[in-house]
Amino acid sequence: MRVAAAVVVHERQVLLVRRRVAEENLSWQFPAGKVEPGEAWEDAAVRETKEETDLDVSVAWVLGERRHPATGRLVSYAACNVVAGSARAAAPAEIAEVAWVTLAQLPGYIPDGIFEPVQRYLDAVIGLPPCGQN
């Protein structure tokens, strides 16, 4: 089974969702879900983000894919931009809460670390000082 994950950054924070039922040691994660038959995985990342958080996003670029070490599933990651909406737990049977998290807070939510290409992306886009500041 292939899973699509959306790495949504907005105002120097990344969106995480907390699953109502943890999978392995995964409680907090990026919005993600199963790719349906015939669906492009990028479209699945957008759809799952909408279903889980009520946030409209668009895929900016592909960050990579891996076999997840905890679940064994093939996970594809997409960097996404917010198009419209405000994030909330839109699938209460599945999602307990959402959080916008700074780079410094991220290890507290995902203590086992993040897929290296995703971490590099977050370091680059969140770790930069705001425009006009040194």
Keywords:
alpha+beta; seven-stranded mixed sheet; 134 residues
Compact overview of the structure:
Helices cover 21% and strands 43% of the residues. By secondary structure, it is of the alpha+beta class.
Q: Can you describe what's shown?
A:
With 134 residues, this protein is α+β, with helices and mostly antiparallel strands. The chain has three helices and seven strands. The protein starts with a strand and ends in an 8-residue tail after the last helix.
Q: Structural class given helices, strands, pairing?
A: alpha+beta
| Content of β-strand | 35-45%
Structure summary, number of beta strands: 7
Number of helices: 3
Order of helices and strands: EEEEHEEEHH
Kindly report the oligomeric state of this protein: single chain
Distance between the termini: 45 Å
Roughly how much helix do the residues carry, as a percent range? 10-25%
Characterize the biggest β-sheet.
Answer: 7 strands, mixed
Q: Roughly what is the average pLDDT, rounded to an integer?
A: 92
Q: Give the overall shape, derived from the CA principal axes.
A: globular
Low-confidence stretches: none
- As a whole number of angstroms, the C-alpha radius of gyration is 14 Å
